[in-house]
Amino acid sequence: MFTIKIIAVRHDFIRASALFGLIFVAGCAALPQPPSRPAVYDFGPGPAVQAAAERGTAPLSPLTLDDIEAPGVTEGSNAVLYRLAYADARQLRPYSQARWSQPPALLFHQRLREQLGQRRAILRPDNGAALARNPELGGRLPPVLRVELEEFSHIFSSPSDSAGVVRVRATVVDLLPEGETLRGQQVFTVRTPARTADAPGGVAALAQASTQVADEVAAWLEQALPPPRK
């Protein structure tokens, strides 16, 4: 009798332990999981910069690159934005699990500076005056390039067809004692197809489009700012 009673107690204890274990596991599964951190992207490594002598081309005159403006985009925002052109092209939507490492205007400024710097000295707005007495400039301040980033988004023309679209407005002016003189203005738009209809595909397409826009701006500046005659 005593042995039977002990066996029954042990059996009840085992059942209770198993039930408690199931409740504990179920409770842990019901706890909210920490949210996954968004992936962070940039434009990747920039172009390899070669000295002008290595390329066999003469360096161009210095240029001041102003800060890039991004009208219509929240200042300081690092969101990767997309548009559903087939639904409502006027609405910008952020990817929830993707971020730029810096605001797009800063990333594009860096890529443009890298590209322009391959053939000329690129100055900041606050140090352009340091070259005002440079004999090569005839005592004048270097021209100033101002850029507005008008469009920078992953645009879907259909659920499966999309592209990274970058549009900028570039303006170059001379700074004279009597004021600014316009040297030229041009709008550049590049649309690069995205390989995948998601954030990684859009980011890659936007990075590629940005590099192409920077190349086109550099080529345009060589026409708008020809080297001074000796």
Written overview of the protein:
- The longest helix is centred in the N-terminal third of the chain and has 29 residues, at 2-30.
- Strands 1, 2, 3, 4, 5, 6, 7 and 8 form an eight-stranded mixed β-sheet that branches.
- By secondary structure, this protein is of the alpha/beta class.
- The chain folds into two domains: 1-33; 39-224, ABC-type transport auxiliary lipoprotein component (Rossmann fold, 3-Layer(aba) Sandwich).
- α4 packs across α5.
- 33% of the residues lie in helices and 32% in strands.
- β7 and β8 (179-193) form a beta hairpin.
What's a quick, concise take on this entry?
The chain is of the alpha/beta class. Helix content is about 35%, strand content about 30%. Strands 1, 2, 3, 4, 5, 6, 7 and 8 form an eight-stranded mixed β-sheet that branches.
Shape, principal axes of CA atoms:
elongated
Identify the quaternary structure here: single chain
The chain-level structural class is alpha/beta
Number of strands: 8
The residue ranges in which pLDDT falls below 50 over 5 or more consecutive positions are 1-10, 22-27
Largest sheet: 8 strands, mixed
